[in-house]
């Protein structure tokens, strides 16, 4: 009877949906979500979609919101008795979300997000479905990476303005999907073609001409250096490297120095069969590292790394694993799926270190 779909709940924001959304939700299911905000704050709920088969008093399928402490209830909601506004402002720091269905034939189900009174944005829908004004600050809830909807473009050129805003923000690396956060963006003149890219665990699509596009602005942590600069590497090191001898007896060294992005020919490769291989970058001095781009080696082999972890050090001796915004366990980054394309991953929060592995 589990009617729960995509769910990501944090103390300050979150996103949830019925099972199979945006496909038809299943029959005879029930789901209960408990939303809890920090004491002294109140919850703001945004209805991204409530498409439950209509029936008298929403008897066949219903969405009900309840404040267990004050005894206040909102709903029940379904297609013929939907929420009066897309944004519900409560006076409670705790809300129970109840979703139930009996036998039905149609309906996408529900998509709901929430934020707290600390992060209301500027009158924008927290899911970011609405088109922003020329310059805007919007609060995006946690869990937008897996909501329904497409994005066109990439972090460097911007996004077609019909893209799902907060999903594009995760792709651009300005917020972490695990926590959400405030984003600053502008609407600027559109371009002829939006190139697709794989970044931060999301694929964007190749898109055509649009009048406007969305540009996300990264706020760097002063007095650290500005974001967007490619950092120079003073020296490379590795756990091992492959000394290849080809069929003609010629040597080819896949040494660490060949790991520079854009190097012609072969790249770095660890010795075949080696375990827990690592590549180390010495940045020369302590730097603010906000992201990484990886690519495989297509010459002469179709080599690439599918996933990896990152650790950092300020002295080259004591190493700290990167755990991302949650800090609970070592973060595993999604790498490449072929040897041709580049894949971007953002560090949120940034890494401040001289050495990166």
TrEMBL record:
SUPFAM superfamilies: Galactose-binding domain-like (SSF49785), LCCL domain (SSF69848), Spermadhesin, CUB domain (SSF49854). One of its GO terms (molecular function) is signaling receptor activity. Residues 220-357 form the F5/8 type C domain. InterPro entries: CUB_dom (IPR000859), FA58C (IPR000421), Galactose-bd-like_sf (IPR008979), LCCL (IPR004043), LCCL_sf (IPR036609), Neuropilin_MCO_CoagFactor (IPR050633), Sperma_CUB_dom_sf (IPR035914). It is found in: Membrane. Keywords: Disulfide bond, Membrane, Phosphoprotein, Transmembrane, Transmembrane helix. Its main location: membrane. This is DCBD1 protein. The gene is Dcbld1_0.
């Amino acid at each position: 009877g589990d009617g729960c779909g995509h769910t990501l709940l944090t103390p300050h924001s979150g996103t949830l949906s019925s099972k199979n959304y945006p496909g038809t939700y299943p029959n005879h299911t029930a789901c209960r979500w408990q939303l809890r905000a920090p004491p002294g704050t109140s919850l703001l709920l945004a209805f991204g979609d409530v498409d439950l088969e209509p029936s008298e008093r929403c008897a066949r399928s219903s969405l009900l919101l309840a404040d267990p402490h004050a005894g206040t209830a909102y709903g029940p909601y379904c297609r013929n008795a939907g929420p009066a506004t897309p944004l519900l402002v409560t006076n409670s720091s705790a809300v129970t979300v109840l979703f139930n269905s009996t036998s039905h034939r149609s309906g996408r189900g529900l998509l709901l997000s929430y934020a707290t009174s600390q992060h209301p944005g500027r009158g924008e829908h927290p899911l970011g479905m609405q088109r922003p004004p020329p310059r805007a600050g919007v609060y995006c809830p946690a869990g937008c990476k897996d909501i329904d909807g497409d994005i066109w473009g990439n972090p460097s050129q911007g996004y077609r303005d019909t893209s799902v805003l907060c999903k594009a923000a995760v792709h651009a690396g300005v917020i972490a999907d695990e926590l959400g956060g405030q984003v600053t963006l502008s609407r600027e003149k559109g371009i002829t073609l939006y190139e697709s890219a794989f970044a931060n665990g999301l694929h964007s699509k190749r898109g055509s001409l649009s009048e406007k596009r969305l540009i996300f602005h990264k706020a760097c942590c002063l007095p650290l250096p500005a974001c967007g600069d490619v950092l120079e590497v003073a020296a490379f090191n590795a756990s091992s490297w492959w000394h290849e001898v080809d069929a003609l007896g010629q040597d080819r060294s896949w040494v660490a120095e060949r790991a520079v992005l854009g190097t012609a020919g072969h790249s770095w490769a660890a010795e075949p069969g080696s375990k827990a291989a690592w590549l180390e970058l010495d940045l020369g001095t302590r730097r603010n590292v906000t992201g990484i781009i990886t690519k495989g080696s297509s010459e002469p082999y179709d080599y690439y790394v599918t996933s990896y972890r990152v650790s950092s050090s300020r002295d080259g001796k004591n190493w700290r694993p990167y755990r991302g915004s949650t800090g609970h366990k070592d973060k595993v980054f999604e790498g490449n799926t072929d040897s041709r394309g580049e894949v971007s991953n953002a560090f949120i929060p940034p890494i401040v270190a001289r050495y990166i592995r």
